[in-house]
Design goal:
heterodimer; A: 319 residues; alpha/beta; Rossmann fold; 2 domains; 6-stranded mixed sheet; 4-stranded antiparallel sheet; 10 helices; 28% strand; elongated; B: 262 residues; mainly alpha; 0% strand; globular
């Protein structure tokens, strides 16, 4: 009860998600990885395996350790302890990165080069690159080849970065917050491209703090908070981990009394109203109506994905 | 849990891969710098403008010859400090460098391409200065002298690229151009790049031998016989080699420390 006092009910954490039965070999694995920056622990004994052909969403609030995990898998930083292996090799070894592509949070790309030149340039980093025309086609950059990067819109710039991530014809692709700052249309466009990658049998690790994005794309969601895995499963499993209803109404009943009603897990004030989170909303409402004839403005809703997420991460904080 | 892992594809890192890699890196690095007018116009423009103002204005004098050598050095130092120092600092801050590091490209390629590109700018500066000097400045030069000047100027790429590299590791990117100017301009002045050392205050003349730009300029001035008498030319080479080692050593130390922390 104490653990759930702040929010929706979360089922206990189950055993690690089993590997899909048709694949047995991990493309990348992080085993019990801890990463510390001075006093701060960015990752705390994190274990994460990526299997061929799956799209994994690494979901978590800002500062959860998502980007740190990606940077470790790309060999950009070394773990404090634990092991990181990508295609059986240490990603710190440059040649291990030939089969990897990455779309990172880049604030600025050289703007005085044309799209075509950027692609040509990045292709030279890989021994067996994709043909430039193929990159243009996949990243939907047709007609933009001769535009300077600096002249592109935000969504177009992200598409170029997506194209660069594919230049080495990678089997494993890391997308770090790929749609951050994008408008809805561009975001949907990129989602389509990510789905296409999955259909080609590529393995994708996607970090995001948009639940909707994880839900739309991922075959498996790994929720992390404060550097630890707090939930893992298919998007449906994650959503089902959180049950309950939200009841919003204006009542004279005392908050401390409301908390004693059966199945109530949380009571919050919202201006003149209260928001009650309960697993059996019908019972709670019946009880409340009996005790308070002045009760008005009643609304009952299912928790959104945001609530599920907050419940998962908030729950961890209380443990 | 599965213990086996998928192994990496056999990658072909042949000779042709490296040739292509380096060629493309230099090509686009140079093109990028050239099109970045804030960089190309100031790095090429300042030595050329200064030479026009102070060298050409004193045509048919020793000044025109002296400044031809010293502004060539001034150009190389500027291209290196801004091209590598400010360039790397900026690309680090923007995350662009990290994206490159996530690729299989060897890090040395990145540095080498930047150094070669800066040297190309220095060659453009030397060509413009020589053209100005010979046509408007009344300077007469043999072909051998032109080649020597180009050669000595290019040799400066190594020590000053090293200095740029070190600066890129310690400077905050947003303050980089300001910090570089605060080092570059006084150092150039005190080393006799703008006017002969003998015209500078006595105390400044004493400081000059401690500055890498002084030794660099002396090597270039020696082509025209303007090097300070009584100092062995080999000493200037040694000073530049020592300076390079110092810069690279410090850069290496700082880099490995930040790697360990990262």
């Amino acid at each position: 009860m104490a653990a759930y006092a702040s929010g929706l009910q979360v089922e206990p954490l189950t055993a690690p998600f089993p590997a899909p039965s048709h694949v047995k070999h991990a493309v990348a694995r992080m085993h019990s990885v801890t990463k510390r920056y001075g006093q701060t622990t960015a990752l705390d004994q994190l274990t994460l395996n990526l299997y061929p052909g799956e799209v994994v969403a690494l979901l978590g609030p800002n500062g959860a350790g998502k980007t740190t995990a990606v940077r470790l898998l790309l060999g950009l930083i070394a773990p404090t302890s634990g092991s990181v292996r990508v295609m059986g090799r240490d990603p710190r070894d440059a040649s291990a990165r030939t089969g990897i592509g990455a779309m990172l949070q880049v604030t600025r790309v050289p703007e005085t080069l044309k799209v075509r030149e950027h692609i040509d340039w990045f292709r030279s980093y890989y021994p067996n690159p994709l043909p430039a025309a193929e990159i243009v086609r996949i990243a939907k950059l047709e007609g933009l080849e001769n535009k300077f990067y600096g002249k592109l819109s935000g969504g177009q710039k992200q598409r170029v970065l997506f194209g660069l991530a594919l230049s080495g014809d990678p089997d494993l692709i890391f997308l770090d917050e790929p749609t951050v700052g994008m408008d809805i249309e561009s975001r949907r466009g990129l989602w389509e491209q990510i789905r296409w990658l999955a259909s080609q049998g590529k393995t994708v690790l996607l970090t995001t703090h948009y639940l909707e994005e994880a839900d739309a794309l991922a075959s498996r969601v790994v929720v992390i908070d404060k550097g630890r895995v707090i939930a893992e499963g298919t998007p449906a499993q994650i959503k089902h981990r959180v049950s309950g209803r939200r009841i919003r109404c204006i009542t004279e009943l005392d908050a401390s009394f409301l908390l004693t009603l059966p199945s109530v897990v949380n009571v919050q004030r919202d201006r003149e109203a209260v928001i009650i989170t309960a697993n059996e909303a019908e019972k709670v409402v019946r009880e409340m109506l009996l005790r308070d004839v002045t009760l008005r403005g009643l609304e009952i809703s299912a928790p959104g994905l945001e609530d599920a997420f907050l419940a998962l991460t908030g729950c961890n904080a209380k443990d | 849990m599965a213990t086996a892992v998928v192994t990496a594809r056999a990658a072909t890192f042949g000779f042709s891969y490296y040739v292509r890699l380096l060629r493309q890196e230099i090509r686009y690095e140079f093109l990028k710098m050239l099109r970045l007018r804030a960089f190309s116009l100031s790095v090429v423009g300042f030595p050329v403008m200064f030479y026009f103002l102070f060298g050409v204005a004193n045509r048919h004098t020793e000044w025109a010859r002296y400044l031809l050598a010293s502004y060539s050095c001034f150009g190389m130092v500027g291209a290196s400090l801004f091209g590598l120092g400010a360039g790397i600092a900026m690309e680090r801050m923007q995350g662009w460098l990290e994206l490159k590091q996530a690729s299989p490209m060897p890090r040395l390629t990145y540095l080498a391409a930047k150094m070669v590109s800066c040297s190309a700018f220095a060659l453009i500066i030397v060509a413009l200065l020589v053209t100005l000097g010979v046509t408007l400045g009344g300077v007469s030069m043999t072909a051998a002298e032109v080649l020597k000047l180009a050669g000595i100027t290019l040799a400066g790429a190594v020590p000053f690229a090293s200095m740029g590299l070190l600066l890129s590791l310690v400077m905050p990117a947003t303050a980089a151009p300001g910090i570089i100017n605060l080092i570059y301009l006084p150092m150039s002045f005190a080393s006799g790049l703008w006017m002969p050392l003998s015209m500078l205050p006595h105390w400044l003349q004493k400081i000059a031998p401690a500055l890498p730009t002084y030794h660099y300029a002396q090597l270039a001035l020696n082509i025209f016989g303007y090097a300070q008498p009584g100092v062995a030319i080999s000493g200037h080479w040694e000073a530049l080699i020592g300076f390079t080692c110092l810069m690279l050593g410090a850069a290496w130390l700082i880099f490995t420390r930040s790697e360990a922390k990262a």
